Request: fold
Amino acid sequence: MVRKAVLPAAGLGTRFLPVTKAVPKEMLPILDRPCIEYVVVEAIEAGITDIVLVTSRGKSAMEDYFDRSPALEATLEAAGKTALLAEVRRVARLATVVTVRQQEQRGLGHAVLAAASAVGDEPFAVLLGDDIIDAPTPAIGQLARVHAETGSAVVALQEVPRSETKRYGICAGEMEAPNRMRVRAMVEKPAPEDAPSNLSIVGRYILPAEIFDILRRTAPGAGGEIQLTDAIAVLAARGEVCGLLFEGRRFDTGNPLGLLEATLHEALRRPAYAEGARALLKRFA
Reply:
């Protein structure tokens, strides 16, 4: 059982400036809830009980969001706003959330390594907050099942147009099931003619605790940062990584248009907002 999840959330969110000068990008809303809540809910619905947020200076709003707010609760209770009170309390009860600081941003691998003491010696999940996945079964739960079956590290895969492989990290290996690859190597942003496949890694991982020791030995890679894929590549070279073509729809909320797309999708799938959202879309068509 994978019990713990690491959510790296220390980045500056420069693609959303100037708003992210004061608001963590993870707290930007998809409809009426921050992006980070959708990722935490995915983890909880997959059976994960402990969430480790890797944060940095100026990110305390995330900690506050998942904490109790006695003054707010008392105000809502006194006003008889029971539905809002229940919603505020629901968020605080979602999971056990702890935070660790990444004091300097030196890449995704460095962020994951910052969580080592909180994770301990057990397999764990990594979920990137920029990737929101709407799926009938939580995407990270799909990966956890493959880990339980194989004992391997697992990365989420998504097909991309071969003409766009130069924008992604692409996996090389052989398919051992219709939706599962035995990953042997990862090639960063290959030209279409050089790409070993059209299967790209997206922001969901199940990793063994051994990855922390590998990260400690990993030299800075692309951009002078410690890359998580470089550490996973060590496991892949030993045949210890599976890639899963997960079931679900992914939204890249790391850019404004992706966030807008995710918001429209969420509005259309919720009965309380669907009719109004369709009317707005017709007005702007």
About this structure: The domain at 4-284 is CATH 3.90.550.10 (Spore Coat Polysaccharide Biosynthesis Protein SpsA; Chain A). The chain has one domain: 4-284. The CA atoms of residues 221 and 227 lie 6 Å apart.
